């Protein structure tokens, strides 16, 4: 059970980078980008193919990030230059990436067993530093991935405070207003989608090395997982500031993985039920806050009604006393 929880937290931290990318497109740009399902696999495919070819895993992961950025930019071009609907642009790019990913890998699955990856390298560094091999594998990987995810969080917070980042936020909030200020919203959308898919592809590259394989079907439903992380994080931790929201996204990703891990402990559920569990988690995350808000609103209305009734009673009592006073004076 403890091992399962540690694994869930580790996976949640790595998937959090993907969730930050989804947060950029979904919340900041208000763009329903389905490219994520394809670019996640693209990152995994590029990293796995290069690692098998003998390329340094760190270099392979960086190249996966760059390819993901290009994929996002193409989606942005389809939407801005091609005037294609945002949802359709993402779907078209997702379908195109499926064939591109097969071309990159040359087959549907690339195993990374006995290959040198980022995680085996970190483990080797931990052993050289004097750690036990098991501790180096568990805590070395955990701490390094946590630092890497926090680095992406810091970059997101910093970028969204820059001039371009503020313009992208304004584009997502009110594109007409930002266009009236002579800003190039098309370029801002392309940059935003590029960065979003760069993070997604980077996460895909890490997950491929974490699971020791890249598969052409590993991106199915990834956008839903990303949205689940964002929604859960926002519901649990709040969204008062950008820094708090990005931290909430990371927390949401970890919570999502823990919930899935706990759900799979049930005897009647199987590994193939993960998508069903994901759908149920998203439904609960979407519906539960609305139910809570409705109850709070109902409670506030009842409180106001009681306060008004008390005021009317006090007013009526005061009037009665004044009448008595007037009569006694007479």
In short:
The protein is mostly helical and 330 residues long. 80% of the residues lie in helices and 2% in strands. It is globular.
Blueprint of the fold:
Layout (H helix, E strand, L loop, with lengths): L1 H27 L7 H17 L4 H24 L5 H20 L3 E3 L6 H11 L4 H27 L3 H11 L1 H6 L4 H27 L1 E3 L6 H16 L4 H22 L10 H56 L1
Antiparallel strand pairs: 1-2
Helix pairs in contact: 1-6, 1-9, 1-10, 1-11, 2-3, 2-4, 2-9, 3-4, 3-9, 5-6, 6-11, 7-9, 10-11, 10-12, 11-12
Descriptive labels:
330 residues, mainly alpha, two-stranded antiparallel sheet, 12 helices, globular
Describe this structure in words.
With 330 residues, this protein is mainly α. It has twelve helices and two strands. The protein has helices at 2-28, 36-52, 57-80, 86-105, 118-128, 133-159, 163-173, 175-180, 185-211, 222-237, 242-263, 274-329, and strands at 109-111, 213-215. The chain has a two-stranded antiparallel ribbon. Helix 1 (2-28) runs parallel beside helix 6, helix 1 packs across helix 11 (242-263) and helix 10 (222-237) crosses helix 11. The chain is globular. The chain starts with a helix and ends with a helix. The model has no long low-confidence stretch (mean pLDDT 87).
